[in-house]
Amino acid sequence: MAKSHADGKSFRAVLRVFALFGHPIRVVIFQRLARTPMTAGDLAHSLPVSRTAVVQHLKLLQAAQLVTPRSEGRARIYQVDPRGLAPLAQWLRQYRRE
Q: How many domains does the chain contain in total?
């Protein structure tokens, strides 16, 4: 049976999530933000990379809708955005045994 265009698009979204999580720093950033919202500076203090590098990783995660910022004064507080995990969750559901 031929795959629909929508199936291909969904799978590409899954592959993008896997690719983003292929970098260990992005995985750590995501895990920390899943526990508590933080600024890029807060994240950088506890990681072996610069604040600039953290900001670049956050931009990639934000573009994939995996994190979202909110402004508090001059600070940008990042938190996990579950919308970005939806394609992955949907893809995994097909393998779930009941």
A: 1
